[in-house]
Amino acid sequence: MRKVVIGTHDEGLKRLKTTDVDEPQTVGSKEIKVRVHASSLNYHDLSVANGTIPTAQNRVPLSDCSGIITQVGEDVDEFEEGDHVVSTFFPDWLNGEPRCSDFSRTPGDGLDGYATEYVVRPATWFTKAPQGWSHAEAATITTAGLTAWRALVVEGKLKAGDKVLLLGTGGVSIYALQIAKAMGAYVAITSSSDEKLEKAKALGADFIVNYKAEPEWGSAVNAWSGEKGVDHVVEVGGPATLAQSINACRVNGNIVLIGVLTGVKGDVPTAALMAKQINLKGIIVGSREHQNDFVNALEASGIKPVIDTSFSLDELAKAFEKRVNGKNYGKNRHCLL
Fold first, then answer.
1. pTM above the 0.85 mark?
2. Gap between the Cα atoms of 332 and 322, Å rounded
3. Which residue in 82, 157, 179, 204 has the most C-beta neighbors within 10 A?
4. Is a pLDDT exceeding 70 seen at residue 111?
């Protein structure tokens, strides 16, 4: 079978190497064997692949996958051969409060990931995929989809009529747009691309703002909300965008920090945060229980993810390059053909 590993002799995405290895044959009593059909590309995966986040030599990248179970261990009751499944981001976080503060046990980072054709893993590392979904669609759930779900529903307690602000048109933000609209919320979204904003509007966005044309986009969103502020902000930028997000948020509103695209440290307007008594919380994806709940919600709502482009396993570096260039809308995929 083929798999991609991260070498150490080249720089950047040239470190990605496709190799042929033996297909795994042995399945433990509590394990399943999965034929991987698709994976989803995330910013975290890019950081590991290009060396921004260090990892072990010959690590197999990619934290997300969907596929079909081809073999089931004798003590596995939850799954059967032929089931369509989706991987989980934190395999050890099954339920309850967060237990993870790093990526040492995340596939594609501290553990081998899913840029391969077959894997044998504990059954608890997977959930079932939504019925009727393609493998490419299901592969979006693990990171982007579940992060959006947890930010709005688990942490934010989103309800109909709430106002939501989303930053950018990447995988998490577009999923959050779809979730919010399915639950009857109003959504504002930002981007530097008018073309991407029009696509977001077609998906149901109620207010769009180009943050390059409108640097004070927080004030623009606040005005859209009737000067009351939005109830929820899904904050992907970090230090360079947080001040605008605080400006846009209502008193006692919620800002969930899910990304640091503008840096890992910087100035925070603490006085404004305190004056508005805003609930600011950082999160990283979610638990297996959260993912099962999310899958149930997807089946009930009819939401389908937005897929920008598909690539073969051998084109993984090319797929990441498109991510680097910021040309993707929604999620990039690589499909194992």
1. yes
2. 8
3. 179
4. yes
